[in-house]
Amino acid sequence: MAKQKFEKVIEKYYPGLNFLAISNEAYAPGVVLNHDDRIVDTLESLFPGGAWTTKTVDANTGTQKIEGSRSLELGATILGSVMIKSGVASRYEINFEFGQMKEVIFDNRKGAPLENELRNKFMQLKNSNRNRWNDVLHNYVVMSSLYVDTFTATFIRDGNVETNADVITRDVSIHANAEWKTDGKLKLTGNKTPFGTRGFIVKRFM
How confident is the model at residue 143 (pLDDT cuts 50, 70, 90)? Predict the structure, then answer.
């Protein structure tokens, strides 16, 4: 069965996805991010008493395996959980493969508001608490987040697969359970760090 290309999958199923420059498991529906992708507020804090329950579902990407490749620049991450350390990013290209993405969404069955409801809440906040509204103006409200819990990665260096796990471990920060294979592949499991989000920007007129 032919594999789907990562970029094509995102373009088809999640157009406009906000790829995160930095991330951790706290980057979930309900957080508010500034232009640097840093968490500056939460919906729970802005609108106390709301229902902010989330749930995890299989992302809508079809059933084929997904593969991708990326040449890393300093600070870039692969699927939220692999980062090349300072000074060596330009040496590596990473090929990765996985079977299923996960999406964290609000559980509307438990009363979580839909996007249009939230837009109305922000307009109400503009009238009731102008200072708080100014603090979140032009910031990004996360409505869903995407992560891959299990995937394999191959590290290409100078055109060849780097099979020395000690070398890779020296150069790479990993935020998931890692198992090195003899062919140089790294299998990561238990990852819950999102690599991208969907949402909307708080604007003056919504």
Answer: very high
Strand partners, 39: 33
Phi, psi of 7 (to 5 degrees): -60, -40
Are the CB atoms for 156 and 103 separated by under 8 Å?
A: no
| Pair 188, 178: CB distance under 8 Å | yes
User: What are the extents of the domains in the chain?
Assistant: 4-201
Proportion of the chain above pLDDT 70, given as a percent: 92
* Whole-angstrom distance, CA of residue 125 vs CA of residue 17: 27
Please, where are the H alpha helices in 24-114?
43-46
**Torsion on CA atoms 79, 80, 85, 90, rounded to nearest 10:** 40
Pairwise CA distance, residues 28 & 103, whole Å: 10
Q: Which residues contact 120 (CB under 8 A, 6 or more apart)?
A: 206
Cα separation, 104 vs 188, whole angstroms: 19
d(CA 136, CA 202): 7
3-state secondary structure of 9: helix
User: E strands within 72-176?
Assistant: 77-78, 82-84, 92-98, 102-106, 140-147, 151-157, 160-161, 172-174
pLDDT in tens, 23-66: 888 999 999 999 988 999 999 999 998 888 899 999 988 767 99
